[in-house]
Amino acid sequence: MNKSLKKIWNVISSILVALVVLLALLLVGARVVGLQVFTVLSGSMEPTYHTGSLIYVKKVDPYTIKEVQPITFMLDENTVATHRVVGIVPDEEDPTVIRFRTKGDANEAEDGSLVHYKNVIDTPIFSIPYLGYVADYIQHPPGMYIAISAGAVLLLPEYNVYTDFGRFEDNCRRMEAEANPKAQSELYQGAVELYRGDLFSKISYQHWLMPKTAYYHNIFLRIIKCYIERKMEQGAYCAAHRAAVDAMSLDPYDSELNTDMILIMYHRGGAELAKSFLQTAKAHMSEEQIASVKQLWKRM
Question: In the list 9, 65, 100, 275, which could disulfide-bond 115, CB 3.0-4.6 Å?
Answer without folding.
Answer: 100
